[in-house]
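During the first year of the project, the team set up a workflow for recording each protein of interest as an amino acid sequence followed immediately by a discrete structure-token representation. This format lets reviewers and collaborators read both layers of information side by side without switching files. As required by the reporting guidelines, we include two representative entries from the current panel. The first entry is reproduced here exactly as it appears in our internal archive.
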Amino acid sequence: MASSDSKKQNPSAKLWGGRFSQKTAASVEAFTASIHYDARLYRHDIAGSRAHATMLARQGLITDEERDLIIQGLSEIEQEIEDNRFLFKPELEDIHMNIEKALVDKIGDPGKKLHTARSRNDQISLDIRLYLREESERIIGLLTGLQQAFVRLARKYLSAVMPGYTHLQRAQPVLVSHHLLAYYEMFERDKERTRDCLKRINVMPLGSAALAGTGLPIDREFVAKELNFPAVTANSMDTTGDRDFAVEFLSVCALIQIHLSRLAEELILWSSSEFSFITLADSFCTGSSIMPQKKNPDIPELLRGKSGRVIGNLMSLLTLLKGLPLTYNRDLQEDKEPIFDSVDTVVPSLAIATELFDNLSFNTDRLADATRSGYMTATDLADYLVLKKVAFREAHSIVGQAVAFCIKEKKELEDLSLKELQRFSDAIDQDVFDVLSVKGSINSRTSTGGTSLTTVTDALCAAEKKLGMGK
């Protein structure tokens, strides 16, 4: 009788519709539905519900038999979704209501007890945290894979030389391996940031309910243990309105994609005829629909281009939160698409970048030729003078005059005779030629983090050890 009366009093036919006297407009259902994108959270939603049901039974809020029916029903629903046999219904709004309605249809009244002591407000926070925890671990793994690609190339081209640049102009000679290990370090910071972000993602929100907690005798710490969370959130109002952890995650994603974009820009330049520093494998390039000779670096260009959407996703979520009062507001439904899109962009970008680096080669002769022009050992000559007790500012001026002379005479510094060099300083002696060579310049950079062969070899060995790539 109670069930029949309930149906008569609930013309909206929604699980939440008891106080409503009208059916929800179809336009409202279409506008508010999120199931078309949050369906991907089904595993996380079901995992949270299993843990919640286990806790409810442990606390005596449902029976063990009801718990078993709920867990069995959830497992069947999960399998149906994975087998593409589950019908998602937009009128049920979101992943939570779709699963709950299917559970009630499958097991009856016990399914109606699952939502005891929780709200969709804390439920969605849990789902997103579970999802981001999983994706953070995957991103860390992909970052490691990309680092390994850099390290493999650094080992292969350990002694190869190339120009180092500032302002995109040739500055000083460096080892190719030193340049590659710069990206190793860049992505190492990204891994550290992801791990640090994971600390704030990995806090259990369930039990905060709608905003004020619950008066029912739940055990949040038990649920946290079941779901492998090391801690629970401290304030229920903060919890249901909090998306700081998601903003932080998107910030990490944006910086990863920016680093990929910087890397891609160099690959685009280096593969051009003007540089010809690298050769990209044909299988990772495309051609032109009109120009038969073209070999276009589309993968690096797309890596560079996709940075815009990841940055945009971060801005979207920041703007969403701006001025949002506590606690939960429906605005927060708009958080998921930027999160999902960033994951769907960064994950394949890291994967394809790793493949790209495993399929490119450096043109070492061309790189070496490029170090022989541009007065790239000018700083070495200044350092040489400093060691001869010449003040650095004076040495800087002396070398600048020598470079001006070289420009006029169409020579490089190492082409000058001792007599010509001594025109600019009598501190210069025969040993100057040891520092004017590219090899001498590189191997003099022995400061920690420098480009000398010894220093880079040590850095490479340390990276290989850290990545588990022992020779």
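The second entry, processed by the same pipeline in the following quarter, appears below.
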Amino acid sequence: MRRFFGEKNGDKIVIKGDEYNHLKNVLRLKVGAEVLVSVNTPVEYVCEIVSLGKNGATCKINGEHECVGNPNKDITLFQAITKGPKFEFIVQKATEIGITRVIPFVSDFVIAKVSEHKKDRLDGIIENACKQCERTIKTIVEDVETVDSIIEKFKDYDIVLFANERTDVGKEITKLTKYKKIGIIVGSEGGFSQREKERFIDAGTVSVSLGRRILRCETASVAMMSMVSIMSGN
């Protein structure tokens, strides 16, 4: 069955906007077709289309089940902002890998403009990634922050891992299953200044090496998210 995101309205679900356009004009689904619909909760609904209107499809709920593709750990990626296409790629992969939220921030060597990141476009990317990986709860992308503001958030996490080139892998990286709330810090195209690295370490983060080679920022993000997700049991 095809997957969609919709809005629950009593005992019915309505599919609107781009999702409705895809349902009606691309897939050409008709009344009576069965679909799977997510409403950004742990539950996935088995539905039947009962009407196709001007602005949306109304669906009758025939059943529901818990979605096994949702994250079971609360993992946040603190991502220094990158150029638009790279950031979109990172958000897409974060959703597929099982990251709960992405918090972009401005660091010393950031070259991208904050305005490059369009919320509506990112939401579409996240929804498509959720459908592809069979996840019903969308990754949250928060507003752009500063180094100061993200450091303030570190105290709310069980552990924060910092992708830091030229360092040894932290011992804690092999014990991630015991943590429920994990933070990951990854730099932009220009990396981090020495001052920022020292501030992260002073704030109690664990430096983690991604190997002997220097990776592109988007590669580093995917590598770090994948490693943490797998080793934490997410």
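For the second entry, the following points were noted during internal review. The CA atoms of residues 32 and 220 lie 46 Å apart. The radius of gyration is 20 Å. Both points are flagged for discussion at the upcoming steering committee meeting.
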